[in-house]
Each structure stands twice: as C-alpha cells, then as structure tokens.
Amino acid sequence: MRTFDLAVIGTGGIARLHAEAVAGLGGRARLVAAADIDADRLAEFARTWSVPRAYPQPAALLAEEKPDLVILCTPPGLHRDQAVACLSRGVPVLCEKPPALSLAELDEIAAAEAAGGAHFATVFQHRFGSAAARLRRLVGDPRLGAPLTAVCHTLWYRPDSYFAVPWRGRWEVEGGGPTMGHGIHQMDLLLSVLGDWREVVAVAARQTRPTSTEDLSCAIVTFDNGAVATVVNSLLSPRETSYLRFDFAHATVEVEHLYGYQDRDWRITPAPGHATAVDAAWAEGPAGQGSGHTAQLIAVLDALAAGQPPPVTSADARATLELVAAVYASAFTGERIARGQLTPDSPFHHAMAGTGAPWAADHAVPGQRTADR
Q1: What's the pLDDT score for residue 365?
Q2: Which of 81, 218, 287, 357 is the most interior residue, by most CB within 10 Å?
Q3: DSSP string, 285-347
Q4: Is residue 358 in a domain?
Q5: Contacts for 1 with CB less than 8 Å, ≥ 6 apart
Q6: What pTM was estimated for this model as a whole?
Q7: How many domains does the structure of the chain reveal?
C-alpha cells in the first residue's frame, strides 16, 4: 500500500488531532514537514510527532517540498492565501473549517483548484461516522418515509477568556462567531443528510461576549425536499451539547454528542406501527466508525489513491458556507434569504458581516444587552 507524504501548516492544538490521525493509520501516511511562524511551537510539534523538516513560513515549505497533501491548521483568515499557494503548485489541500472567510474567497480557492489541477477539501469530520453514512443511505427509503423536520443545535460555552487569543471573535480573522466557527460542523452534517437548502430566516445577537461577532444565532431553514429545520448556534450554554434530530414520516433519528460521536450516541425511534420495518432498515447500514479526523483522513487518502477528488469537495463546502452567509444576511437585514441570492453584488458574498453587524457602533459594556437583529 502506498505511503502518502503529508505536510502540516500551522502547528497549534488542531494540528495535534491531525497528527494523531496520521499516527493511527499504520504507516499509510507520514508527516514529512511542518511550518509555523511560532518557532517554539513548531519545534515542539516536530519533536513530538517526529516530523523531519520544519519551516518558519509556509512559503519556505512549499519551495522545498512537494507533499501528497498539505493540511491547513491555521486561523481562518489565512486559509485563502495558503490554499491558493498550495494549489497553484499542484499540491492538494485538506483545510480546517471554515475553508475561507467568505464565498468570494472560497470561489478564489476553487478557481486556483481548477487552474492548478490539485484538489481542495474541507475538514467536516462529522460526515464520516458510520451512523451518519447509514442515515444518508436511508433518506428516501420508504421505510423511514419523507423527511419532515429537523433540529440542529450547537450549544457550547466559551468564557470571555477564550477570546483573549487575538484572532478569535473578529470578523476579519475568524470570519464570524459560533455560526461560522462552531455550529458550522453540525450545519454541514445537517446538509449532508437533508440535501439542498432553499431559504433561511434568522436572527443573531451579541449578548455578553467581548467580541465583534455574534455569540448566538437562531435560524429556520427550508430545504428543497420540503423539510424545515431549526438551527441554533451558541457560545453561551453552560450545559454544552451538539444535538441533531431528524423527524421522518415513520421514524425519529437523533444524535447527541459534543465534539465527536460514536454509534452509541445515535438512537432511532419508530413511529407506531413501523418498528419492524424501521429497525430492519437501520440495522442494514455500516457500523463501528465514529466521527473524527481519522475517519475523514482515511476517506481522503482513499480518494487520492483512486485519483478522485477527496471529500469534502469545494462544491460541497460552498453549500455549507453559503448557508452560513445566508444566516448572517437574514439576521442583519431582516430579510428571507434564498439559495443563490448572495451573488457577487451582495456585500454578504464578500464578508459574513456584510453591511456590518447592527451592534458594530454600539459601545455598550460587555454583559449589557446590545442588539438582537
């Protein structure tokens, strides 16, 4: 079996998860290089994970290396330029979420992907657990019936001290608050199950956190298949949970976890009179794989080995990023936003804040009520 040479750009906490995933693949991949502007952090990462070559800048790494895949683990504001630099050299990219700060930036990445001939994929690891794959296979199965409604809640807690890191809570570097940087994982899983969304109406608030972004958003999303989902993204919730619920005509399917799930975190509840058929359908699918970076990395390497675009493709990620942008657009303008509405002449195409958060000029002390639209 081929051994893939991987490089990591950015060696902070999330890079450790990728390094653990690589180490767990039994020699199928190896880390051959890493880059970070923080020399101490880079040295510690290279020493811990036996990375033979370390570079102080991504450009230096790309000048010397031609890995089979670069994993971007840098702050979101750096993703566009770093991805374009890799792709223009024909190096495939696996990029941490969010893939870019805006739809415009992601379109630039897609253009570089097409021109350079290398593929770009986004880390949305919750797609890759076996239970999620099982559920996707059952959408449209008459034993479950039509999807009717769904719940997608990312209720997390981040204290004020979390935002002491300079790039957090800032539109120009992080791209948004929990809608963009936290709930995007559950929203992507929601879309992977229910398919194309059609329309969204939303509100957003900066309730208490010392940020320029929101710390709470709530949305109602309508899908092409008629299903309607409620989506809540929060950094204000002391009992943290990530919860998705899908109500089909003949069954409810739920998962509750925090940062990753196993099969045991899912449950299915048949409607009266449908237990035999529903239980049989649920038992037919894949099993045994939790969500996580390892699961997605296996799928990415499988695709590269087969000469196929690795998941999650730039087109897949764009659907999710467009929903995020639409949540902000609806919350900040008070309008219903349709899929495809945020064209290049919309300010929300170029920045999640669009025309600006309603509280941007509000200098109230954090902790006081600021704005809710």
Answers
A1: 34
A2: 357
A3: S--S---SHHHHHHHHHHHHHTT-PPSSBHHHHHHHHHHHHHHHHHHHH---EETT---TTSH
A4: no
A5: 28
A6: 0.95
A7: 2
